[in-house]
């Protein structure tokens, strides 16, 4: 089921938008944002019903959707949403994926996080391939204003909030040109993979916290290193990744 949902999304991305990168990224970012909203919705519902409270998880997932929103705004600033067909496809798919992910998250949160881990891995590779194929032309173009504000000049609290892999320190991406912006977006996708890996760990209920919470300072280095290793294995497509995640 999870693989089917991911494969449908990847199929649409590869077959319909293979040679049109900005519309393709626009559709990807529109759809890839809503699962975080689905998780937040369900967590909010649990709090409202008094079942259990995980407010800092909501904050992290909102920060993840806030990060994806800025990817989306960057794609819009590059003209990715200029065609009505792309807008309809993206918005309809987002609506469908939202409700599917609400149901999956209600019954199996780990599967919902695994879905998003796979989507984020796909996004990482898509941007990485794009960067390798268009290096020189991207370096010759300016960074959009929205990217400069999000990555450098604005309030960076929300940018830091979604990055669970604090082991490697605080990221401050360069935004001198469009190439830098796509490097930042690609690296964001890797940070999302790390967060999704951390959320799937069997002890996540105790160990997963907002990067701004005092508890995160108490996370042992081995825990952070395990997340880092599982993320790299997953991105490299290694089979051991799942075992490492579930340890
Ligand atoms: Fe993204
Ligand atoms: Fe993403």
What is the topology?
Layout: H1 2-17, H2 21-48, H3 55-77, H4 84-107, H5 109-133, H6 135-139, H7 145-153, H8 157-161, H9 178-200, H10 204-207, H11 221-235, H12 240-246
Bound molecules: fe (ii) ion (2 copies).
One fe (ii) ion is lined by residues 32, 68, 120, 123, 189, 192.
Please describe what this structure looks like.
The structure is a single chain. With 247 residues, the chain is mainly α. The chain has 12 helices and no strands. One fe (ii) ion is lined by residues 32, 68, 120, 123, 189, 192.
Salient structural properties:
single chain; about 250 residues; mainly alpha; Ferritin; 12 helices; binds fe (ii) ion
Quick gist of this model?
This protein is mostly helical. The chain has helices spanning 2-17, 21-48, 55-77, 84-107, 109-133, 135-139, 145-153, 157-161, 178-200, 204-207, 221-235, 240-246. It is globular and about 50 Å long.
- Uncertain segments are none
CATH superfamily: Alternative oxidase
Radius of gyration: 17 Å
Main beta-sheet strand count, sense and barrel state: none
Helix- and strand-based class? mainly alpha
The overall average pLDDT, rounded, is 88
CATH topology: Ferritin
- CATH architecture assignment name: Up-down Bundle
| Annotation, overall tally of beta strands | 0
For the record, the count of structural domains works out to 1
Indicate the overall shape.
globular
The percentage helix is: over 70%
Heteromolecules bound: fe (ii) ion
Query: How far is it from the N-terminal to the C-terminal residue, by CA?
Result: 23 Å
Strand content: under 5%
Continuous helix count: 12
């Amino acid at each position: 089921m999870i693989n089917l949902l991911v494969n449908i999304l990847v199929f649409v991305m590869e077959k319909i938008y293979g040679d049109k990168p900005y519309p393709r990224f626009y559709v990807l970012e529109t759809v890839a944002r809503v699962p975080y909203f689905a998780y937040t919705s369900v967590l909010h519902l649990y709090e409202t019903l008094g079942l259990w409270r995980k407010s800092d998880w909501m904050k992290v997932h909102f920060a993840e959707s806030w990060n994806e929103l800025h990817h989306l705004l960057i794609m819009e600033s590059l003209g990715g949403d200029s065609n009505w067909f792309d807008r309809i496809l993206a918005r309809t798919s987002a609506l469908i994926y939202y409700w599917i992910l609400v149901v999956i998250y209600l019954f199996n949160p780990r599967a919902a996080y695994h879905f998003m881990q796979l989507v984020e891995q796909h996004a990482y590779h898509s941007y990485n391939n794009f960067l390798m194929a268009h290096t020189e032309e991207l370096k010759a173009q300016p960074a959009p204003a929205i990217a400069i504000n999000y990555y450098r000049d604005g309030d960076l609290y929300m940018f830091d909030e979604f990055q669970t892999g604090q082991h490697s320190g605080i990221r401050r991406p360069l935004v001198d040109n469009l190439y830098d912006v796509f490097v930042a977006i690609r690296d964001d996708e890797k940070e999302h993979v790390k967060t999704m890996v951390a959320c799937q760990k069997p002890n996540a209920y105790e160990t997963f916290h907002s990067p701004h919470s005092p508890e995160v300072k108490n996370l042992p280095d081995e825990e952070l290193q395990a997340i880092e290793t599982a993320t790299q294995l997953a991105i490299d497509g290694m089979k051991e990744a799942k075992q490492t995640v579930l340890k």
